[in-house]
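Methods, example record. To illustrate the input and output format used throughout this study, we show the complete record for Na(+)/H(+) antiporter subunit F. The sequence lines were provided to the predictor; the line carrying structure tokens was produced by it.
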Amino acid sequence: MIVFFMLVLMAVLALLAVYLVRRPNIWDSVLAANVATNLVSIIIVLYSIYTDSAMYMDVTIIFALMGFIGSLFTMRYIYRKGDLR
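The corresponding predicted structure is encoded as:
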């Protein structure tokens, strides 16, 4: 069951990659990148549960935190410089 959810999330991640390529503006691109980092974090957590290994949880926390900080600074930069297209 966990493998099924991992595959579904990977399919959603592939659809999100298509959306990133065909993005309407930069704000949607930043939002899609943030959602992608969250999906990858969830996939890593599910893999950690599947393998009964807790060592991936540290990686997941750091990865999610870095994704949030990256999105925050990117949005702040775009907001100050204007809407970059």
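Annotations derived from this record:
The radius of gyration is 15 Å.
The chain has three helices and no strands.
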